[in-house]
Amino acid sequence: xxxxAFLQRLAVCVLRxxxxxxxxxxxxxGNAMLxxxxxxxxxxxxxxxxxxxxxxxxxxxLIALLLPARNRQAAPIGNxxxxxxKMHKPSLITGGACLAAVILFFLxxxxxxxxxxxxxxxxxxxxxxxxxxxxxxxxESLARRMEKNQDAEGMAFVAARLNNSDESGRLANEAVRxxxxxxxxxxxxxxxxxxxxxxxxxxxxxxxxxxxxxLPYLIxxxxxxxxxxxxxxxxxxxxxxxxxxxxxxxxxGAFNSDRIDDYRDRLRMVxxxxxxxxxxxxxxxxxxxxxxxxxxxxxxxxxxxxxxxLAIESGEELEARGNMNGAIEKYLMVIHFLHxxxxxxxxxxxxxxxMPNLYTRLAAVYGKMNNAPQSAYFAGLASTARHEMKLHxxxxxxxxxxxxxxxxxxxxxxxxxxxxxxAMLASFCxxxxxxxxxxxxxxxxxxxKLRIGPVTTGLGLLGAAGLLVSSITLYVSYRPxxxxxxxxxxxxxxxxxxxxxxxxxxxxxxxxxxxxRLGPLDYWGVVFSPYISAPDFTxxxxxxxxxxxxxxxxxxxxxxxxxxxxxxxGAAA
Length: 573
Known about the structure:
Strand 1 (about 515-520) and strand 2 form a beta hairpin. The protein is mainly α. The longest helix is centred in the last third of the chain and has 39 residues, at about 535-570. The two termini are about 20 Å apart. The model is unreliable at about 70-85 and about 520-525 (pLDDT under 50). Among the domains are: about 1-70; about 95-125 and about 405-530; about 535-573. Helices cover about 70% and strands about 0% of the residues. It has 24 helices and two strands. It has helices at about 1-20, 25-35, 45-65, 90-105, 110-120, 125, 135-150, 150-160, 165-180, 185-190, 200-210, 215-230, 245-255, 265-280, 285, 300-320, 325-345, 355-370, 370-400, 405, 410-440, 455-490, 495-505, 535-570; strands at about 515-520, 525-530. The chain has a two-stranded antiparallel sheet with strand order 1-2.
């Protein structure tokens, strides 16, 4: 009894709420529905009656909101369930104009490029079971195209980007076979895949082709690191407890080299040539990921720091034995290499702590040799190095603390681009729903007999307008980045590639994961981490989809049960 009384009161409240929301010309009908509610037998039947009446009143409230009549005239009150509005021509014309404008946007190459970039966020969400490292369908398709055309530069382009070491090595060998001048691509691929089977052979050939370059030796050192990582009982490859003879030999060769050339400039020329030749409009295929923006081996920095310290210790031992010239040679070798490495890798703070010590040692050695001018010269360099170390440390801490400001524009624009993509998909779904309703209600698409309800018209107009607004937002947000890529294709200008790289990096992650915060890190101090990570977003996205699906099925099942109860009540009456 208590439950039945509650349902009766709830039904009355629901219907009265619908009457309050309804426009004035339908409230009389709502009051009539409320009066009839008192005569409905059965609590569930009364609830179904109230929900049906409230839904009709809410429908007309939505119509009044979306399509307000300009010259509304009083009309006899009829049953809103039986009324069907004729085509609202101004709304349909407006919706058609919006769709035409959207089609014109898609005719623009920059907009198609922007739309393609905006879709990248869904890759990690949809392909949950696949690792982003192994999923490169576009590059694999491009590789097949390059092989079919026997395009050596095209194969080198793909080989430098493939994550599959075997396929990358095979394409590099094929490119060099077709064009021996592309032998440098083996250095690029070897730096990325130093564990590939052919790397040792490549290194020997690179040493002969480009003597004096430290890159082949750094590749060998990283290969040795990776081989020892795979040994039983593994250890940290960046800071292992012991050093192998092969590693020592490779790093000695690197430190005694004249320069460090990662062939980045050669690769950029090939990138531009291939992109122009094949009309590659997707900048994500051309612009390197931040992980590989510097083509040196991943362990090169750690290996260099380790060997520099060993060389300094060796110089100190020579100095203690009285071999001053040998000590000077060791110290100058380290200084020369660190300067060369800093120019290519742009990591000065890794070596800042070593430079003052090196210059101080040299000043002391020349002082022992009674060479006052050289001693004073290196003492001055030591003072300058200490000042630069403090300056770099301050700059680095400031950059880390304000990284979210530095990347704020890129992350915000990436968020706007991804939100525009989501809005376009939602608007398209709304428009498709309206079209399906029209097709369901009209057996023939005869323009004279076609009748579209006001709600359907409103939904169609909302979907078309949403498509247009989101298309404009997408175009405006992406256009500056499209201009950077266009300048690279036209003139080879890469001065703003860093901006484009940051933006593309943010667009590869799902919407909302672009914003970072400072978090503590035991071994480094602070680190930037997103407020919500991509794996968490993927989990909650599919959880929401599952819950929504279950809720929809529950609503459909509950509505079906209510209709059956209402039918049985009517038959019993």
